[in-house]
Each structure stands twice: as structure tokens, then as C-alpha cells.
Design brief:
- This protein is of the alpha/beta class and about 120 residues long.
- It has a single domain, classed as Alpha-Beta Horseshoe (Leucine-rich repeat, LRR (right-handed beta-alpha superhelix)), CATH 3.80.10.
- About 45% of the residues lie in helices and about 10% in strands.
- The protein is built from four helices and four strands.
- It has a four-stranded parallel beta sheet with strand order 1-2-3-4, with no helix packed on it.
């Protein structure tokens, strides 16, 4: 899909009023497009299911953008961020955001690096 495709999706999500589920996993859309998608989804009140697996959270900035989305959008009930190999402080940022969102009832963190998971 690439960055341009990710940017196009972000633009569409900002105005879409029908979409209930978004599976954008396994795409190399780049950090700029990921940040734009996170920003667009903050105000999207229709999306219930976000499947964002295998996207590789590589930077602190993207992790923070995603955490802000989780904190802000209280309509998402299903979140799949498995296969992202979220580690250390990035994992802690995501977990802290999830704690603030009681709407999330289904969460997948599958196949994370076991050595990086310490939620205590």
C-alpha cells in the first residue's frame, strides 16, 4: 500500500460515517501515514473494530500517536495490535492508554516478545 495509500486512507477516515471495522495490518504505510490515520480515528465515532496487527511500532512518536488514539476514541471495542513486537517503554505507553479506555472489550497482543512484557 505504501505511504500514499496510508495517507489516502487517513483522509477517507476523517469523513467516513459508515465504516465499522478497519483491518490495515501487514501494510508498510510508513510513520507519517500511521500518525495521520491515528489522528483521523480520534474523531471517527463509527469505527468499532481496529485491526492494526503486524505494523511494527518502531518509534516513540508512533507509539504516542497510537496511545492518544486509544485514550481519545471511546467507540473502539475491539483492538488487535498483535505481531507489532511492542517492547519496553513503548509497551508501557500502550498499556497505560488501554487502562483509560473502558470501551475496549476485545484486545489482542498476540506474538509479542515475551521478554518485553512486564506490566507490573
Amino acid at each position: 500500500m505504501g505511504q500514499k495509500g496510508g495517507e489516502a486512507i487517513a483522509s477517507a477516515l476523517a469523513i467516513n460515517t459508515k465504516l465499522k471495522m478497519l483491518w490495515i495490518g501487514r501494510n508498510k504505510i510508513g510513520e507519517k501515514a500511521t500518525a495521520l490515520i491515528c489522528e483521523a480515528l480520534k474523531t471517527n465515532t463509527n469505527l468499532k473494530s481496529l485491526l492494526y496487527e503486524d505494523m511494527r511500532f518502531s518509534s516513540k512518536e508512533i507509539t504516542i500517536s497510537f496511545a492518544e488514539l486509544i485514550k481519545t476514541n471511546k467507540n473502539i471495542t475491539e483492538l488487535d495490535i498483535g505481531r507489532n513486537d511492542i517492547k519496553g517503554s513503548n509497551l508501557k505507553i500502550i498499556m497505560e492508554a488501554i487502562k483509560t479506555n473502558s470501551a475496549i472489550t476485545n484486545l489482542s497482543l498476540s506474538i509479542q516478545n515475551r521478554n518485553s512484557i512486564n506490566l507490573c
